[in-house]
Specification:
By secondary structure, the chain is an all-alpha fold. The chain has 11 helices and 2 strands.
Length: 306
């Protein structure tokens, strides 16, 4: 029986090869083949099905093997020094422009015999910086689309990757940034400005450093999707927030505590980023590099938007 099965398998394989070849050249199969297939259908058809299954499996294995061969391996990549340089240039540019802005406000107020703007105006200005500091950054710091996040739809930085199962619903993010994080930053910063009698100061620039780190991190995480580098970036965001809170606390303990409270959300966000890194390996099954890398010979994905 085993020998008979093998013969049937061999016969059906040959018939398939001839039939497929004839079909490929748009030629009708030979009449003899048709008769054999009709006369021995009970024996041949099961064997044909088995043969086709084997050929399909081998084809899939070959395809997978080719994909593995063509996927870039770690040895095919190099450190993206261009990206690192641009991150640095963007940080210096943003901090320089913000410093110049605050220095200009202080200069203009001194010329008019004042030290600070009315409290509501200062608060609104600080709130605007909290949400729109990226205006001073030359990189593309695109945030996830707020409306799409609320509706649970895909956008850059949200649902465009495998996310942890414990990721908060999309509606939570705008609530946190617009109604909690932003007001805490604005209130604590207004307290510092009024305590020091001016805008350009070490404590306030410490917060601006934190915002700058956040803007560059948004480029890395949302625009470039460098999941490994994003982990390194979120650590700079986290520790710069703690440093700013410490500087605020030195001037006004309450202001320091208010700003320090934002670290609670940043702790959750950092855990999300680390878990996302774990869940999104590259094509070779490896986690993304903590330092930015690019394919050898290719241009960096990091570009300036202005």
């Amino acid at each position: 029986p085993d020998q008979s099965a093998k013969m049937n398998l061999l016969r059906s394989t040959l018939i398939l090869l001839v039939a497929n070849s004839a079909d490929g050249f748009n030629v009708a199969p030979a009449a003899g083949i048709s008769k054999v297939m009709k006369g021995r259908s009970s024996d041949i058809l099961p064997a044909m099905a088995q043969t086709q299954s084997m050929m399909s499996k081998r084809g899939s294995q070959t395809k997978s093997s080719l994909m593995a061969t063509t996927s870039p391996s770690p040895s095919d990549t190099e450190l993206d020094t261009s990206a690192i340089l641009k991150y640095g240039v963007a940080a210096v540019t943003q901090l320089s422009l913000i410093s110049g802005f605050f220095y200009g406000v202080d200069y203009a107020l001194t010329a008019t015999g004042n030290s600070v703007l009315p409290t509501p105006v200062t608060w609104i200005m600080c709130y605007a910086f909290s949400l729109k500091s990226r205006t001073f950054n030359p990189l593309n710091n695109e945030r996830p689309n707020r409306q799409k996040a609320v509706e649970g739809e895909k956008s850059n930085g949200f649902k465009d990757r495998v996310q942890p199962s414990w990721t908060p619903p999309g509606v939570v993010f705008p609530i946190m940034w617009l109604l909690i994080i932003g007001p805490l930053r604005a209130t604590s910063s207004t307290m510092i400005i009024e305590s020091l009698g001016g805008y350009f100061s070490l404590p306030l620039m410490s917060l601006m450093l934190h915002l700058t780190c956040g803007d560059i991190w948004n480029t890395i995480n949302n625009t470039e999707k460098r999941f490994g580098t994003s982990v390194l970036g979120i650590s700079t965001v986290y520790f710069s927030a703690l440093h700013a809170a410490y500087r605020y606390y030195e001037v006004d303990p309450l202001a320091g505590k208010l700003l320090g409270a934002t670290a609670i959300w940043l702790t959750i966000a950092s855990a999300l980023i680390i878990d996302t890194w774990r869940l999104n390996p590259d094509q070779n099954g490896e986690r993304g590099s903590l330092l930015p890398r690019k394919a050898v010979g290719e241009e960096s994905v990091t570009t300036f938007s202005w």
